[in-house]
TrEMBL record:
Record bears the keyword Oxidoreductase: yes
Keywords tagged on the record: Oxidoreductase
Domain Alcohol dehydrogenase iron-type/glycerol dehydrogenase GldA: residue ranges: 9-178
Name by which UniProt lists this protein: NADH-dependent alcohol dehydrogenase
Organism of origin: Clostridium omnivorum
Keyword NAD attached: no
Annotated InterPro entries: ADH_Fe/GldA (IPR001670), ADH_Fe_C (IPR056798), BDH-like (IPR044731)
UniProt xrefs under CDD domains: BDH
Gene3D superfamilies: 3.40.50.1970, Dehydroquinate synthase-like - alpha domain
Length: 392
């Protein structure tokens, strides 16, 4: 186990009807004017937005609504939000939704208190530890942005999907009511469950030794998500399964399962280019890529892949042939993806990149890491091209 720091100051308010506490929570911190940031029509149709407005009004907190967030949120709306906040004197930003509104809200919060161009921040040309205060109400179990330090934004010029990670962006509070996820489309629910799995798996596949404690925590989380996703596909209003997914989403990406080890995140970087170019659902894109990444790198540490197969997917351990166990684990992951309606190739995802597009994605991908990505196994442009081709 290597040295680490773990910081997670977000207050979690979890359970039924907890969105009604948002006014009390913001008022207790002394804020007076809120930007409410969200996407789609769900909040109107379900009455969630009305309940949030009512809760704020009870504490005489002013608010402005800014909808329009799309999956793989755009920098243009972020900049619009910054200008609106400055014009209206907003002192707190409240995101309602999943990773896209929360990530977009974090970007607005960066822009509100910093003078640089936000494109420079997400392109890695500047850094900051300053951000306006944010909170969130989760309506999707997926990215874990409600307690993470990460924000991912799509820069329309070049369709670049880029992130900025800093602990200052962890929300002041996260309100999480599993009932708000009941009406999610099945595809979105499954895509979110896959994203939760991947956030843990990106940390689990490491070459750091003597990390048994966190391994066991990660394995328990992965098994719980595996089982809960299968239940929710059949029973969309199963509260306990929805609760497991929602809490696992936060635990998978708040940094806990990465403590004491070097994480990988190559699959995320490879998928980000798919999301940038083809605007695919993030979790589905990860499912389309991961099996190919795994088959490309598993010989780097066959024992870890065999352990994953055995502990997460109950594949019998063949001590005389760990490679067989490892490959069966990859197959078990792909079988699980299919059972919840997720793709395991780009063809199943519904895209068919040309050779030129694959080369462009690979070049952009490795450019985020000075010519290479990954820590489980270092991957260069030609490696990423091969993985994209395998995923066809």
């Amino acid at each position: 186990m290597i040295n680490f720091e773990f910081y997670n100051p977000t207050k979690v308010i979890f359970g039924k009807d907890t969105e009604s506490q948002v006014g009390k929570e913001i008022n207790s911190r002394g804020y007076k004017k809120v930007l409410i940031h969200f996407g789609g029509t769900y909040l109107y149709e379900t009455g969630v937005l009305d309940r949030v407005h009512k809760s704020l009004e009870e504490y005489n907190i002013q608010y402005i609504d800014l909808g329009g967030v799309v999956p793989n949120p755009h920098m243009s709306l972020v900049k619009e939000g910054v200008q609106l906040c400055k014009k209206e004197g907003v002192d707190f930003i409240l995101a309602i939704g999943g990773g896209s509104p929360i990530d977009s809200a974090k970007a607005i919060a960066y822009g509100l208190v910093n003078d640089f161009d936000l494109v420079d921040l997400y392109m890695g040309r500047v850094t900051t530890d300053k951000i306006a205060p944010i909170g969130c109400i989760s309506t999707i179990a997926a990215t874990g942005s409600e307690t993470s330090n990460s924000s991912v934004i799509t820069i329309e010029e070049g369709m670049l999907k880029r992130s900025y990670n800093h602990d200052c962006s962890r929300p002041r509070f996260a309100i999480m009511n599993p009932e708000l996820t009941y009406t999610l489309p099945a595809y979105q629910t499954s895509s979110g469950a896959a994203d939760i799995m991947m956030h843990t798996m990106e940390r689990y596949f490491t070459n750091t030794e003597h990390v048994e404690l966190i391994d066991r925590m990660a394995q328990g989380l992965l098994v719980s998500v595996r089982e809960a996703a299968l239940k929710v596909v059949k029973e969309p209003t199963n509260y306990d399964a929805r609760a497991d997914l929602m809490w696992a989403g936060s635990l998978s990406h708040n940094g806990l399962t990465g403590t004491g080890r070097v994480s990988d995140f190559a699959s995320h970087k490879i998928e980000h280019e798919l999301g940038g170019m083809f605007d695919v659902a993030h979790g589905a894109g990860l499912c389309a890529i991961w099996g190919s990444w795994a088959r490309y790198v598993y010989k780097t540490n066959v024992a870890r892949f065999a352990q994953f197969a055995n502990k997460v997917f109950d594949v019998p351990m063949n001590l005389y042939n760990l490679e067989e166990t490892a490959l069966k684990g990859i197959e078990a992951w792909e079988d699980w993806c299919h059972k919840i309606g997720m793709p395991t190739s780009m063809t199943e995802l519904g895209i068919n990149p040309t050779a030129a597009q694959i080369e462009e994605m690979a070049e952009k991908c490795v450019a985020t890491g000075d010519g290479h990505i990954g820590f489980f196994r270092t991957l260069y442009k030609e490696d990423v091209i091969r993985i994209y081709n395998m995923a066809q």
